[in-house]
Amino acid sequence: MAWFAAAAISAAAACTSSHARSLPRAAEVSQTGEEHSVLVHDFTQGLYGVRALNSAVKLRVDRDSNVGDEQVLVIDYPAPDADPASRDVAFDVENRNWTSGHALQLRLKPSHPIRISVSWLDRNRVAYTWWSDLRDAGWQTIRVPFGEIKPNPYFQPPGAKLGSSLDVSDVRYMALSPQDSSSGELAIARISVVKQ
Question: What pLDDT does 53 receive?
C-alpha cells in the first residue's frame, strides 16, 4: 500500500508548503447550541486546499440550502480500479490542534448508500482510518470518536511511531475516500472537531 505513503507524504508536505494560506484564519472556534467546534476544513474559498489524487475524480463547490446555504464540496468519483487510492480526496487542515475536542465530525450526502473511509496522520505520523456506512441519499452526520479510532491495519507510512498513543495536537494530513463498488457523487459540508 505504498499509495497511502505517497499520498500522505505529499499531502503533509503540501499543507506546509508555500501554497498554504499566507495569513491563516484565526482558530475559528465557533459555538452552535451547546456544542463548540474547531474548524478543520470548509469550502468558503472554493477548492483551495482540496485535491483529488486522480484526475478522473471531479471536484466542484456548490451551495446547498439543506445545510444553511453553506458552500459544500461535491465529489464525482468513477468506479474503482486497481489503485486503492484512485478515489482519495485530500484536505489541507486549517487548524491542526484538535485537542480541544473528542471527535471529528463530517456532514455528507451520498447519491446512494456507500461506505467511506476517513484518514489522518497524527503528530507521531501514525495513519488512523475510520470506516463508516452512509445510508441512502440525504445529508447525514458521522462522528469519528478519538477514543475509538485505531491505526490503519493495512499500512503505515515510513517513520510512523507505532505503539504511541493517538496525538491530535498536530494533524497535518486528512483524506476521505468512497469505498463504493460503482461510480457516484458525494457532497461534504464543513469538517470540524467537536467536544462530544
Answer: 85
Please tell me what DSSP assigns to residue 165.
Answer: P
Strands 50-52 and 89-91: antiparallel
* Domain extent listing, the chain: 2-17+38-189
Residue 9 has phi, psi (to 5 degrees) of -70, -45
Q: If we measure between CA atoms, which residue out of 67, 59, 45 comes closest to residue 87? A: 59
What architecture is the 2-17+38-189 domain classified under in CATH?
Answer: Sandwich (2.60)
Q: 24 is written with which cell numbers?
A: 491563516
* Residue 4, H or E segment: helix 2-15
Q: What is the pTM of this model?
A: 0.82
In DSSP terms, 37 is beta-bridged to: 30, 194
Model confidence band, residue 36 (pLDDT cutoffs 50, 70, 90):
low
